[in-house]
Write a structure and sequence with these properties.
With about 300 residues, the chain is mainly beta. The protein contains two helices and 21 strands.
């Protein structure tokens, strides 16, 4: 693990796995502020007018990866996270960043080299600090730089009999419009062409084997999740049963994962782990070939 200054934030930490590197800052957040292959471009979106800033009472999006907790609320979700966070170095390749967001909520982010295969793992955790139960869900949001294409799989029925019934649903927000040219429908996936978007868009879905991906230039980021369990189904998740969500607008694209609704008693916590892999791709590849690479990569690491 390497300690360094990055983009004006003085207290940052870098870990590497193979030719990929990830950087978190402890000056705000907690936030992951950099993800790249080697010395390549930062795949995470950072808002230039907010980079390096700390303090103040205004909520700033900043960019990068952040921890949220469901449900999204116009006040509680936008409490400024502009102050330094507590840092605990758990090992050479594991870092824990923690902050008391409000008197009721503590959020923490563990950044580590993947325990299996390539890439990194992010543990998004929420703890109830109050003296009353709280119903919430951990939520991880990764914000990517513009110009790429996001992917969300469309699962197929496991048998001909099952195919007689509905097998998949998409959840929409008030501002979502499928008339936007950014949506492209593949045979078993949806493409989100961020740079074609005319306005903000968002979709959510429940996937039994959840993954999302983002392709930018010669890099492909694959995001997988650990919250699939036999004792949960779509009704257990926020946003009409969404364990994955994709938000995008004219500035960025976000890949998001949510844990099931959880009733936290005082002192209890809820968390889920998201794995990010960054693979090299040929910019000339078809989207079908990129999807095949995603599927092969996920299968090989199971």
């Amino acid at each position: 693990m390497k300690r360094l200054a990055y983009k004006g934030w003085q207290n940052c930490y870098q870990i590497e796995n193979g030719d990929c590197k990830m950087i978190a800052t402890a000056d705000i957040g907690p936030r992951i502020v950099h993800l790249s292959r080697g010395d390549g471009e930062n795949l995470l979106k950072l808002f230039e007018n907010q980079v390096g800033k700390t303090g103040g009472n205004d909520w700033r999006l900043y960019g990068g990866h952040r921890v949220w907790h469901a449900p999204e609320d116009p006040v509680k979700s936008y409490i400024p996270d502009n102050e330094a966070v507590d840092v605990e170095i758990l090992s050479e390749n594991v870092l824990c960043l923690k902050v008391k967001l409000t008197p009721e909520i503590e959020k923490s982010l563990i950044m580590r080299v993947a325990t299996e295969g390539q890439g990194f793992e992010l543990v998004n955790q929420i703890r109830n600090l109050s003296d009353k139960p709280i119903r919430t869900a951990s939520w991880g949001i990764t914000t990517f730089t513009p110009g790429g294409v996001g992917y969300l799989p469309i699962p197929k029925a496991p048998s001909a009999t099952d195919a007689l019934c509905a097998s998949f649903q998409i959840n929409l927000w008030d501002y979502t419009s499928f008339s936007d040219p950014s949506f492209v429908w593949g045979p078993d996936w949806i493409e989100f062409h961020q740079d074609w978007a005319l306005s903000k868009q968002k979709v959510g879905a429940y996937l039994n084997n959840p993954w999302l991906a983002y392709r930018l230039g010669d890099s492909l980021v694959i995001k997988t999740f650990d919250f699939q369990r036999e004792d949960v189904n779509a009704s257990d998740f926020p946003d009409l049963g969404s364990n994955v969500e994709v938000y995008f607008d004219t500035y960025m694209l976000e890949l998001e994962g949510l844990n099931p609704w959880t009733e936290l008693r005082p002192g209890e916590k809820v968390s889920h782990t998201e794995k990010l892999q960054v693979l090299a791709v040929d910019p000339e590849w078809s989207h079908k070939k990129a999807i095949e690479l995603v599927k092969n990569s996920i299968t090989s690491t199971c």
